[in-house]
Amino acid sequence: MLEQLMNKMDGAARSTRISPRMLRRLGKHQRIIATIVIILAGFSLLASMSLTSSLSNPDTRVPLASSNNERYLAYLPHSGLSNQRIELANALVLAALLDRTLVVPPAFLGTVVGWMKQEQLYEHLGWLTDDSVDFEYECRPATPGDLGSYVVKSRCIEYHRFAVIHWTTLHDLEHAVAPYVRIRFQDQVSLEKLQDDLGIGPEETYVHMDEHIYDWRLYEDRAEAKRLITTGTNYFDSFAGRRYFKVYTLDYWRRRPEKLLQLGGIFGSTRMSLVNPQHLALRERITQALHYRRDTPIGETAQNIVRYLGGEGSFVGVHFRTGDSPFRKQLRHNMDMFAQGMAELTQANISLPISESKSTIYQDDASIDEEKRIQLLPPYEGLHRPPWSTICHPVPADKNAPITLGTSTNIYIATDHRDPRGANSQLLPWFNTFPCTVTLNDLPEYLFAPLDRLHDHIVPGKPLRPFLIPIVDAMVAAHARQVFTTPRSTYSRYISEMNQAWIH
Fold first, then answer.
1. Same domain, 285 and 313
2. C-alpha count within 13 angstroms, C-beta hemisphere, residue 271
3. Is the CB of residue 409 less than 8 Å from the CB of residue 434?
């Protein structure tokens, strides 16, 4: 860079048409003036180069190398995409309050490691985001004659279940967040790589080591922070027993003089207790900015499905979480709760609780009437086509009109259940009770074509389609007239927020 700059300045000197031979011919005062002209030309060119650089790299919002005054905040992501989004929201707020540039890692899809000690997170994520690794060769499928391909590598198992995407593909950070927070995107999760890229040494870096997932919480109200410490109520109860967390104020982080502040995971919707109205408004802006974009291939796919279902607000949605242990235990209870809510909303005459009803597999039973069988056969062209449309109906376009369709109401269920209609599925009572229900698995293949345009951010040859299905599922549910959500699920809460923003 310095050599390039010197060459440019040499060029600037030549452009002034004053050669060394000419300088020797000039008098003393004339030589001084000529030298000043050359120096000013160099500074002018330097300013021009700086402006050109900033215009040609609009996505980073900050220089690619550390300036003398620039200070940075970095964090370590972990767990599923919903948890990563909560971490990103917390990090954006904290970076704005500390007036630091936020270093944003990519978003991770699929199976992502949960919280663990920093060195372990760096080991997992650092390798998976290292673009110098030839993943397609290292993790190639077993091939006859290629002995190395038969070696089972635990890292490769993780790689095949994992994908990387840029946050700007999911959310509009450039326009909605950039006015409030400076952002620098960093592809590889590596402290050493980050320090090298920023030109910041270990002595200018503060690394906060978490002892557990909720290691600390931020309190803007100093009196509240003091009360928690004084009364010893700075704890939460978890499956592992009572965990005490550190209580920090904004001043604690603001006093850190280091150029780079590297935190661990900052997950938790209650991680930061804010009271300043301006800061609360900022957090709300960031929350809205982190709704999924609808102007991308992901959004295009969701819109395809919504039109297939009849359009925005033409169906009732359910986000039914069943995968993680707490939600598996509550599956029957939640299904009955959803059924009761659906009965009240649509005036359906059903017997509760539905979880105790007999489950039947319909597709091979000719004795079951058509109303029960068509639930498994949504038309290829859309729900407006018979025989579906002769029995199942969209909800009224007028959002204030009551829904009186009962069990004939078109319903869309977004769920993490692997096989909702499978022979052993615990969700079968729902389909028995509400035959006009559609899931993502029921939809025709052509609706998902836009997803084929997206590929992994680190491994361009790796398609993202299978990893994006849960996002599309959630976006479709958020376009419902009303959506029922799973209690205590942060992802359900997120879908409800999008539903309020998009439909209501």
1. no
2. 21
3. yes
Considering the domain architecture, whether residues 240 and 314 belong to the same structural domain is answered as: no
Name 357's Cβ contacts closer than 8 Å, sequence gap at least 6: 351, 429, 432, 433
pLDDT of residue 438: 97
Cα 441–Cα 446–Cα 450 angle in degrees, nearest 5: 105
Q: Does residue 62 form part of some domain?
A: no
State the residue range of the domain holding 222: 72-290
What are the 10-residue block averages of pLDDT along the chain, 504 residues in total? 36 39 44 42 38 31 54 98 97 98 98 95 96 93 85 87 98 91 97 98 97 94 96 83 89 97 95 97 96 98 98 98 91 97 97 79 44 64 93 92 96 96 94 96 97 98 97 98 96 97 93
| pTM of structure | 0.82
Number of domains in the chain: 2
**Is 458 found in the same domain as 326?**
yes
In a domain, 107, yes or no: yes
- CA atoms of 405 and 383, how far apart (whole Å): 15
Residue 393 DSSP symbol: B
Note whether 285 and 307 are same-domain residues. no
Q: What CA–CA distance (Å, rounded) separates 311 from 229?
A: 53
Number of Cβ within 10 Å of residue 489's Cβ equals 19
390 found inside a domain: yes
Helix (H, G, I), strand (E, B) or coil at 156: helix
- CA pair distance 483, 477, nearest whole angstrom: 7
Residue 414, phi then psi, degrees to nearest 5: -100, 125
Residue with tokens 């900050």: 62
Q: How many angstroms separate the Cα of 345 from the Cα of each of 316, 382, 482?
A: 9, 24, 9
285 and 319 in one domain? no
Place of tokens 């959004």: 299
Structural contact between residues 447 and 308, judged by C-beta atoms closer than 8 angstroms: yes
Handedness of CA 381, 383, 386, 387 (dihedral sign): positive
Residue among 408, 395, 402, 407 nearest 480 (CA): 395
Q: Which of 310, 325, 272, 282 lies closest to 114, judged by CA? A: 325
Angle formed at CA 488 by CA 294 and CA 484, multiple of 5 degrees: 55
Q: Distance between CA atoms of 375 and 380, rounded to whole angstroms?
A: 13
Helices and strands, number each (H, E), in the chain: 21, 16
pLDDT value at residue 151:
77
Distance CA 69, CA 80 (A): 35
Cβ count within 10 A of residue 223: 8
| Statement to judge: residues 338 and 392 lie in one domain | yes
